[in-house]
Design a protein that fits this description.
The chain has 244 residues and is α+β, with helices and mostly antiparallel strands. The chain folds into 2 domains: 1-48; 58-240, Glutaredoxin, CATH 3.40.30.10. Helices cover 57% and strands 9% of the residues. The chain has 8 helices and 5 strands, in the order H-E-E-H-E-H-H-H-H-H-E-E-H. It has a 5-stranded mixed beta sheet with strand order 1-3-2-4-5. Helix 3 (126-139) runs antiparallel to helix 4 (143-155) and helix 3 crosses helix 7 (196-208). The protein is globular and about 55 Å long. It comes from Paenibacillus rhizophilus. GO terms for molecular function: oxidoreductase activity. InterPro entries: Thioredoxin-like_fold, Thioredoxin-like_sf, Thioredoxin_domain. Pfam families: Thioredoxin_4. This is DsbA family protein.
């Protein structure tokens, strides 16, 4: 009888371990799903904080380039005014700035030949608009600090195809990299999207002059067909020589 009873118990013990393992798998799956859901919710919250041009309300009148509203470098007495149209997410803008900006400033801005301006043409994605509005917030505190922001942001540029210039990223980036501004005011302006209408106005103004990509340049009100260093400097030299 004892052997017979033992044989009856063994099947129960045989299936007990797989049942316990199956239960653990279910518990782990539920826990993992909960963790992923929480992560996705945080990511979705970041995306929901991104601006959309259609939600930016306010009157926009496109009436000339309005140089006085744009960040600038150089003397206001310079004969040539150059306007750069750029998007902080644009890899070509980053390359132009890192490759050409310093020698252009040295040869044309510091010599008094050119006054150089920047206008947002934020078109790649919604975080383009946010990065542009952050630049505007800094510019309204300090023209000098705007150029520092632009240069360093290009140095830390993310993948063009991904959303990287989120509110969280920009706040940390500015806190870590841009000294000499009222950070609390900047944070308030960014979160309240104080200067988003200015970014939208830049976009509409640039589009009215035929801008359709970045970087693009305008010399004394004339939009250039190319964006290379040689194309830009040739147009400037022609103007300096008295050509049209």
């Amino acid at each position: 009888m004892k052997n017979s009873q033992d044989k009856k118990r063994r099947p129960r013990n045989h299936y007990a371990l797989p049942m316990v393992l199956a239960g653990l798998v279910v518990i782990l799956a539920v826990a993992l799903g909960y963790t992923l859901t929480r992560g996705e919710s945080g990511q979705e919250a970041e995306l929901n904080n991104l601006p959309n041009y259609t939600e930016v309300k306010g009157k926009i009148v496109v009436d000339g380039l309005n140089y006085g509203k744009q960040p600038r470098l150089g003397s206001p007495d310079a004969k040539i005014k150059v306007m750069e149209f750029a998007d902080f997410k644009c890899p070509a803008c980053k390359k132009w700035t890192q490759t050409n900006m310093q020698r252009f400033i040295r040869n044309y801005v510091d010599t008094g030949k050119v006054e150089y301006y920047f206008m947002n043409f934020a078109f790649i994605d919604r975080d383009s608009y946010l990065a542009a509005s952050a630049g505007e917030a800094i510019y309204h505190q300090s023209n000098e600090k705007f150029w520092e922001y632009a240069t360093k942001l290009y140095d830390n540029q993310g993948d063009e195809s991904k959303i990287w210039a989120t509110e969280k990223f920009i706040l940390k980036f500015v806190k870590d990299n841009i000294d000499g501004i009222d950070y609390d005011q900047f944070e308030q302006d960014l979160k309240n999207q104080t200067y988003m209408l200015d970014v939208k106005e830049d976009f509409k103004t640039a589009g009215s002059y035929g801008v359709n990509g970045t970087p693009q340049f305008m010399v004394n009100g004339v939009l250039l067909k190319g964006s290379s260093y040689d194309t830009l400097t040739a147009a400037i030299d022609k103007q300096l020589a008295g050509g049209n």
